[in-house]
Amino acid sequence: xxxxxxxxxxxxxxxxxxxxxxxxxxxxxxxxxxxxxxxxxxxxxxxxxxxxxxxxxxxxxxxxxxxxxxxxxxxxxxxxxxxxxxxxxxxxxxxxxxxxxxxxxxxxxxxxxxxxxxxxxxxxxxxxxxxxxxxxxxxxxxxxxxxxxxxxxxxxxxxxxxxxxxxxxxxxxxxxxxxxxxxxxxxxxxxxxxxxxxxxxxxxxxxxxxxxxxxxxxxxxxxxxxxxxxxxxxxxxxxxxxxxxxxxxxxxxxxxxxxxxxxxxxxxxxxxxxxxxxxxxxxxxxxxxxxxxxxxxxxxxxxxxxxxxxxxxxxxxxxxxxxxxxxxxxxxxxxxxxxxxxxxxxxxxxxx
Length: 352
Prior knowledge:
alpha+beta; 2 domains; six-stranded mixed beta sheet; four-stranded antiparallel beta sheet; 18 strands; about 25% strand; elongated
């Protein structure tokens, strides 16, 4: 198990640079007896036939190397059942567990009823145009999905979306010494008032406890200490809950601010799956854990409303950090839970 993960981690696969890693996954799937289809750097293969169709999806791309690594991040280090390397936790551990679960099901002779679709995708970390949406547009529709991300093997049936705004406040430039005498409008002051308004905004909570709070993350304004700025630009990151509509939220925010508000991105929608859905019930039973709400978003937001549970080995706080790692015990548990969730889903769906 660690051997397969080590091979995946050793292949550098930054977003849009996944070709070699996709080659490896494609070859592995063929050697395991599947008939993989390649769509850009996404690899798809199936087991079984007919409906319903359940998708296992995780991604092979990684974020770039950050500072703080103690050794080459693409040279896996295995010590005491722990593998350290870039992408080990996010999300090549999930990829490994999904691939091995599919192979185990095939070796056990599982062939439906129903179709298991394994889709190993690219460009997840950047929401790229050649990632999950491209791949899903070229395969038969699926009825439900398991999104592989490090969740500590707890099933997530709801996650936040992401609304990114670019705001600009305008004023009038002039000498700082004469600002009040000349009645100059300081763009930074105007922006600051709107930033305070953003920090105080209240939205309806989701399930009574999950709140949405806009976060100003980038601010740019001013040219020199003695010149009143006529422009201040700032960016806002809003992690929305499933009860909030992005268009309605954007319109309301615009009505509350004096600055110009441009929507940079609204494509990552908040999503949720009813706890009564077969894929959620199957994951809860297989994992032995109750469902939870995730504050981070993933490719699930781009599935087009397909009932989904986010689930995988590893822990989210380890991601995008130096010395990223995953435990062999987590991988084995992930394999077992993916396999059992698949079997229980088809049993549950068949009984409905």
